Amino acid sequence: MLPLLKVMGTGTEMRTNQMRDAVAKHLGLTDEALSQRLPSGTQTAFDNRMGWARTYLFKAGLLERPERATYIISQSGKDLLLNPPSAIDPDFLRSYDQFNVFHPPIKNSKEERIALDDADNDLTPEEQIEKGVLQIKRDLEDEVLQRVKQLPPEGFEQLVLRLLVGMGYGGSMADVQGVARGADGGVDGVVNQDHLGLDRIYIQAKRWEGSVGRPVIQGFVGALSGVGASKGVIMTTSTFAQPAQEYARTLTDRRIVLVDGQRMSELMLKHGIGVSTKQTFVIQRMDEDFFMEMET
Prior knowledge:
By secondary structure, this protein is α/β, with parallel strands linked by helices. It folds into two domains: 2-106, Orthogonal Bundle (Arc Repressor Mutant, subunit A), CATH 1.10.10; 149-270, Trna Endonuclease, Chain: A, domain 1. It has 14 helices and eight strands. The protein has helices spanning 2-8, 16-27, 31-35, 45-59, 75-82, 90-93, 97-102, 110-120, 125-149, 153-166, 214-227, 242-250, 261-270, 288-295, and strands at residues 14-15, 63-67, 70-73, 176-178, 189-192, 200-206, 231-236, 255-259. The strands form two sheets. Strands 4-5-6-7-8 form a five-stranded mixed sheet, sandwiched between helices. It has a three-stranded antiparallel sheet with strand order 1-3-2. The longest helix is centred in the middle third of the chain and has 25 residues, at 125-149.
């Protein structure tokens, strides 16, 4: 917010795109920095912060908006720049009554307020929401993985097959089949990628505690050779040792994909396997086109 106010200190009216370019130049931001996006990918972090900086300064009365998408510094803004603070944040803006009307203070306990300020005071509302959602997602991934580790071997194999179907491999569970234990030679299941079974992916499910080593991958490759297959997936509840990962990468006549426990839990959440939606939040924004129609 302070760099934006300094840029506007010339007293020139600027449109939002001009403000954006001026602040980027003032801060010396690289193209790489300007292209960084929010975790959701819906908007660049810079554009998101610029939008909220304009809104906060406008609501505090430090900027004025003579017309749509056009801003100019107010007298209050000019007065502030005569003795500017080291930074402008929401707490600083609370000295302006009109900002408190727009953004009422949080009525939590003092301890909760301090914790919130320390962690999130420099984040925009969207960034705070995405940070919270990301933390919930990570906690749920850990919880799901711990629950998967409690499944019996047969249940884990069925979970792996259902996850692959949920990811779009095979049309339905009718296109997957397990392999009888003891007679699979390292193969726990098969997914038909077409209804005739002309293209098949072979699966090995390892409900494992330690890292899966290279010998396991080599054994699976041998099992694929025995059935004339070229594609395979190994999923585990643990991790893959570095030699195992390197061996899988160097294979030329086989395509083996390794999915560790963390990646598996991420995929389960992404494709709705073993989880359900508890609550959905909708973020709305003003529709300028609607209001422009009302003005014509």
